[in-house]
Amino acid sequence: MELRAEEISKEGFEYIGTQADGTTFLAKVKRRIDYIVIIESLILDDPEQDGKEYSWFETINCSTRLRQRSNGQWVPFPSGSIGEILLLPWACDQ
């Protein structure tokens, strides 16, 4: 796992947090355009996905604190989620 950690670090991902179930969240800013931030999230050890690693891109509006869904709709992060508590402040403070 140490080799994978070095690889992830070289790719520019930063540790965001770990949920109680062991799911680990990492992220990196891909682009910033004024108050809009596009991030890539990397998820490790998610028991709901059989522990598989996966990633996705997310667009965050730091002025409204909303995230954009794939259908273009702007919605809040789920209340109390890692996204609301850790990812949003991290992305908007970059």
Describe this structure in words.
It is built from two helices and six strands. By secondary structure, the protein is an alpha+beta fold. The radius of gyration is 13 Å and the shape is globular. A hairpin with a 2-residue loop joins strand 2 and strand 3. It has a six-stranded antiparallel sheet with strand order 1-2-3-4-5-6, with helices on one face. It has one domain. 15% of the residues are buried.
Question: How is the topology of this model organized?
Answer:
Layout: H1 2-10, E1 14-18, E2 24-33, E3 36-44, E4 54-61, E5 66-68, E6 74-76, H2 82-92
Antiparallel strand pairs: 1-2, 2-3, 3-4, 4-5, 5-6
Q: What is the strand tally?
A: 6
Element string (H = helix, E = strand): HEEEEEEH
How are the strands of the largest sheet arranged?
1-2-3-4-5-6
Largest sheet: 6 strands, antiparallel
Uncertain residue ranges: none
How does the overall form come out from the CA principal axes?
Answer: globular
Compute the CA-based radius of gyration: 13 Å
Number of domain modules = 1
Give the % helix.
10-25%
Number of DSSP helical runs: 2
